[in-house]
Amino acid sequence: MLLGRNGAGKTTTLRTIMGLWAASAGSVVFDGARIGGPGAAGDPAKGKRGTPDIAQLGIAYVPENMGIFADLTVSENMLLAARGARQLDALDGKRLEWIFGLFPALKKFWLYPAGKLSGGQKQMLAIARAIVEPRRLLLIDEPSKGLAPAIVQNLIAALRELKSTDTTVLLVEQNFAMAKALGDTVAVMDDGRIVHRGAMAELAADEGLQQRLLGLSLAAHQ
Amino acid sequence: MGTAAATTPAAAADAGAGAIPKSRFDAIPLLLVAAVALVAWPFVGSTSTWLTLTVAGLSIGMVIFITASGLTLVFGLMDVLNFGHGTFIAIGAFIATTVFAAMSDWSASPDLVRNLIAVACAMAVAMALAGAIGWAFERVLVRPVYGQHLKQILVTMGGLIIGEEIIKMIWGPAQIPLPPPEALKGSLFFGNANVDKLRVLGVVVGAIVLVALLWALNRTKIGLLIRAGVQDVEMVESLGYRIRRLFVGVFVAGSALAGLGGCLWAMIRQIVVPQIGGEVNVLIFIVIIIGGLGSTLGCFVGALLVGLMTNYTGFLAPKAAMFSSIGLMVAILLWRPQGLYPVSSR
Fold it and tell me: What are the angstrom distances between the C-alpha of B251 and each of B125, B155, B264?
């Protein structure tokens, strides 16, 4: 769980991990291998984005704007995310059923243009797309943004089930209730640096610490 | 493609509740093609002349579509403005003269099959060479200027000029006549209307290209990647695809299609000049702007509109013919500022 005020650098962190933006210093290490930072293969600063290679390591990214292909159908969006499948019937049926179980709306609107979905459904599609094949790390940027509370509850349930699989989730959130419901460990950023690191439960229990780190009181977010 | 513009954003229901409106195919631009043809009818007066003009316009529209289809994808996919596209058209046209000269026995034979083989050879060589030159063009000229529109315009314009001069060095500065193959000379008659056989060939080849393109874009994974890339390159890369490689493929295919279009263009015009690239360039840019940058269907409809418009005005008011396609573009952009079929979510 990555928390922090607006402009703290959370989205920048995710985009840098994904190789979409160049890091001016430091390095990104995934599973013991250096995948980003100045001088790494595919440094965007040298004009060559290593994003496809990073994705092929098993890292999936759900950007804040969800990155849905609006002119494509829901099924085409899913097919695109499955690198191993050339045709729809090559998608892993069992996994698809599992995803439909998490997000029933996707089954219902399978052949609709994704641009016609509601905001919540688009968010579900964006996450479903990221997990259509097994992934090792999921980067999700503010999934609760602009969603109705009931939908956020759905999303929390789905992400909780996802967490129970082998996938690691790095979630950026502004919604503290959602962060509290999902987070195991938490890092808080401010001004581009990590200013706190610890267990989520610890932060959730310490209102003074929240106040100091995030400038919020729990009451304001309930 | 082309489905998103039709309906207003759905008043979408939340997960599971209610049905969202089915998306409708936006047929208005297609109806516009028919409307232009119908409006021109009373002005032209004679039905047979109108039919001749209409078929001629549709066929030139098809040829414009073939040449422009690659350009619109190149722009949509990589945001590259390639003003050098005309080079590939010119190469296709000149290759046609060379192949026809080399196969003069075949093209002068009264046997239609032998003629068609000569035509097919000319098209194949034109596509292969234009594609190969397109590959080099992308490597040398386009690759260093990704993301920089002004430089792209300057560099690719320079490429067009260099291409024209190289063509003058190889084929000479004079215009080269390109007599049609024996069995394709003259016209077919439908009642009183006569239709050039070569123009029928243009329509047939154009239809084949359209069907092949739509099939590749809508039924294959590579087509899916191209359609997604036109909308959001970053996300396609984030899903793990090397879009740069895909882009080179599209660039080469687009150049090959431009070569094919140039070949057909030269056969219909029956004369080839070194300036052909620059001349057609203007037309195809008008077409892809009318159609909506990045949209294949829009490019098709735009090409038909431009083809019909130039033919009607060429007959009714020859002096206004040059202006007609620009006027058409202005009118359409006033109506739909993003073009006929805007590509969404850019």
Answer: 18, 16, 20
